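Hey all, quick one. A colleague (J.T.) asked me to put the iron/sulfur cluster job into the tracker so the inputs and the structure tokens live in one place instead of scattered across chat threads. No bug as far as I know, just bookkeeping. Sequence used:
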Amino acid sequence: MVSERITCSGCSLLCDDIIIKSDGLYIDEVIGACLKGKERFDQITSKNRILNPQIKKDGELQKATLDEALEKVIKIIKNSSKPLLYGFSTVSCEAQLKGIHLASVINGFIDSNSTICQGKVLNTSKETGISLTTITEAINKADLLILWGANAAESIPRLLNKVLFSRGKFRMTGREIKTLIAIDPVKTASFGVMGVRDVALQIKAGKDIDLIRVLKEECCVADSIPDKGIAGIDSNDLKRLLLHLTGAENGIIFIGQGLLNSQNGSNVIKELLELVQLINVKQQKGRMSVMMLGGHYNMVGFEHVALSNYGKNQSLQFSNNLLVETSDTIVSNIEKEDFDCSIIVGTDPISHFPKHLSKKLMSKPIILIDNKQSATSYVADVIIPSCITGIESGGLVYRIDHVPLNLKKIINPPNNIFSDEEIIEKIIEKLV
Ligand code: SF4
């Protein structure tokens, strides 16, 4: 039995301090992972693991050989002139690159989960600029952590352990000098770690934009905080919030799902990024940064792979095997029914999308490459099982703070299952 230090692919924090004990065939023990991380390892033998290729026959999914499944995939693709490719946030960068190559070969449209998630922040930052930071900076230097519309305690379980309860490399102090502020309409589990110096702000739902605007105004004109407060937050709490924002040496705003949708027809993210810039102008001694809390372990990877290879981070449309301009996204394409089949990789859009979009997606043939059963696997026309990346196959991935890390293969997959990259490669080989 050998002990080995590995990186967990349970979420976008990609903790690289996990110890496993393995004989090379099985993993006997996982030390240091949170429950979510342990679940990732349990997936190897989980009941909902997809172990065999399947093809829909007479309305029923039936076990098939890999060759039969690939044949069906090629048939669907050859009958299609507008294929959609979607997902790619839970696969390696190598598989993402192959996925984009496949889209170019079949003149398809490809998008990742990031388009409807944290990619919105990056897209907005093209207009406003963005001040980013890293997890290491957060561990070693942060003195103010703001969870805004983000329930880190449940979505990225070890984030607060690392950034809030750590001592850091350059000082003798830790939690005692760190302030946590949570801004959320819901009292999430993250409110449970509040200490005496922390600030819990239960904001009225959909009113973040009003709060941001008051803070922006106060950054420009002193004493503009309304006496009655704003968005359900009283003026004393507003003053405390502003004091922290403008007085922190190293503040980080963690942007969660709760801020991604527009409010009152306005782009909340744009106004938040503008606020951060104003604070950094006003700041005398410190710096405010943001970090996007996307959950999938390689959501950031797709942005880097697409941008560095094709000059565009999301929503890539190919025609005549070349990238062409489009303002469409995965959502607009499904909404308009401007597709005739879909290739879904490592995600479950049928559960994630609103019902009317799921229905439209289901109305055309679905090819699914994934390792676990989901609502999408129940309606797919053909399923090819894939390895669990970070356990049964390796590859490059990007952490939540855009730092690249390498995932190792630890054990062989069951049933000689192939990695996402190998499966996509096989599809391309059969097409060209
Ligand atoms: S926080 Fe995320 S990466 Fe870290 S152990 Fe838990 S699931 Fe794995």
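Adding what we noticed when we looked at it: The radius of gyration is 23 Å. The mean pLDDT is 94.
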